[in-house]
Amino acid sequence: MTNHAERRASLLARMEPGSVAFLATAPEAVRNGDSEYPYRHDSNFYYLSGFTEPESALVLVAAAGDQPARAILFCREKNPEREIWDGLRHGPEAAQAQFGVDAAWPIGMLDEKMPELLAGAPMLYCRLARDERLDGQLRRWFDAVRARGRTGIVAPPALRDLVPLVDEMRVVKDTGEQELMLRAGRISAAAHRRAMRAAHVGVFEYELEAELLYEFRRSGAQFPAYTPIVASGANSCILHYNVNDRQTRDGDLVLIDAGCELDGYASDITRTFPVNGRFTAPQQALYEIVLAAQAAAFDAIRPGNTFHAAHDAAVRVLAQGMLDTGLLDAGKAGGVDDVIAAKAYTAFYMHGTSHWLGMDVHDTGAYRVSEHPDKPSRPLAEGMVLTVEPGIYVRPAPGVPEQYWNIGIRIEDDVVVADGVPRLLTDEVPTAVADIERLMKERT
After folding, report:
1. Whether the Cβ atoms of residue 199 and residue 252 lie closer than 8 Å to each other
2. What are the domain boundaries of the chain?
3. pLDDT tens by residue, 139-192
4. With contact defined as beta carbons under 8 Å apart, do 79 and 92 qualify?
5. Under CATH, what is the fold of the domain 4-169?
6. 257 flagged as catalytic
7. Does the active-site annotation cover 34?
8. What sections of the sequence does the record tag as coiled-coil (predicted)?
9. Which residue has the higher pLDDT, 1 or 200?
10. Of 67, 96, 174, 255, whose CB is crowded by the most CB atoms within 10 A?
């Protein structure tokens, strides 16, 4: 079970003594008219609190002298009438007991209590310049404290952005987080297998999307982690395609990039397969290159290796494959080192190989020792979770062999950095050509 109190204690230990941290959850968002989008809490807020209701905030007060550290939750009060319409609320009393905070107060008391908590604090940690509504609240709270200046009470003289501190805490996943992400990966893998079995010539992209969403929800996942990409034919060469309305044709490849969110944690899988169940020779040639690039990237994921080592390994395999197939003219592009130095491979592979994965699909954390582009890539450590997603995308163009036109391939899996080989979270959906073709014979 996740211990949110330990996370709060870890953050409090990083804060200046006597300082205050404030973090609000995400607001509800109107979709249209009086209809709202399905509510999703703020990731950092949930990471520290475990609380999923809207209209809530968390305040941490660091220990100072003989004053112990405190965690205070602000949340909605119990309201029987609103609960008839909107569902049950914890209320402050139950929230304090269930979520292990030192105190819980009604959210309506926020403007009253915050000036009291800020008075005399040496620093306030909060989101800086990210939320106009919060910026307005901060001004009101600081004005209320400053109004008492003649009594010797002062407002915090320093502000610090809270987000980078929490972001770095989230980079390494504990055992509980890893197991939850494994469950999410298994659900997403089952959804991809279902879509492969449901595929046939003439199926619409949205029909395959429906198979994914059905499997997500029936297996207990609350949401898709992002809008699914179901891209057939030429659409497979559009990296973030999500219209999902084309009818497939014989000979098409289908690229599906989709993952579920389970209890606040995301999965992220991409598979590419022939809608008729059989790869053509050109499709298989490019597919095998991408699969080999992914294997090379896996081999580079070790504690102590840099984050970008997996990308570098994948690019070397992809570049050689582009030369071997004639996607790049060796007479013009030169050898593999020349292709990499000139970044000629970006004509067919224009994105990175990995990103952090966790509560957000593109999860928090720096990719370099410093975010300055001249600084070195960040070393990997056990417990980090990242995707591995090489690809090749071939659009019609002069000098490009026509047999490869409109072929887009991406293969993506989620891995945990571990001592020895990385731990694969998404291996329950096949990647080998023979295994994909065998699975697709099991048509629904």
Report:
1. no
2. 4-169, 172-440
3. 999 999 999 888 888 999 999 999 999 999 999 999 999 999 999 999 999 999
4. no
5. Creatine Amidinohydrolase; Chain A, domain 1 (3.40.350)
6. yes
7. yes
8. none
9. 200
10. 255
